[in-house]
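re: the backbone from monday

yeah here it is again, tokenized this time
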């Protein structure tokens, strides 16, 4: 039997916030918004991407880059979104899908249902102050 040393875990604080009372809401040029909660150095966003949302139309004017240069990690709660990387690969994300999206992509909602994503890559996303 292999024994592992006891792992020390020191918790110095706890914090929580509800995504329903975000620190800020960043509106896109049209078709949705992202609610942002920050706890220390951790930031989580809940993006609501309405039908017709497309990064190159709704966020590109805010970001000022040719494609999205944010790394996204998260889970899709509802709806669908298709992501196309700058090299042409496409993937559709749907409810229950956990994702990692590297910088260099465009994206758009699919269908008539809003796409709701929880994303840890939003600290500077759609934020004109960044």
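seq for it, each position gets an aa:
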């Amino acid at each position: 039997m292999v024994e592992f040393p006891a792992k020390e875990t020191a918790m110095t604080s706890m914090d929580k916030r509800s995504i329903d009372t975000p620190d800020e809401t960043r509106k896109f040029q049209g078709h949705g918004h992202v609610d942002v909660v920050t706890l220390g150095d951790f930031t989580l966003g809940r993006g609501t991407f309405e039908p017709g949302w497309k990064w190159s139309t709704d966020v590109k004017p805010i970001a000022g880059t040719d494609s999205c240069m944010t790394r996204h990690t998260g889970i899709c709660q509802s709806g669908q979104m298709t992501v196309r990387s700058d090299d042409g690969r496409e993937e559709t994300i749907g409810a229950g899908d956990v994702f990692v999206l590297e910088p260099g992509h465009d994206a758009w909602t699919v269908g008539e249902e809003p796409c709701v994503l929880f994303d840890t890559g939003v600290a500077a996303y759609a934020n004109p102050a960044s």
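The longest strand covers residues 32-39. The chain has one domain: 24-119.
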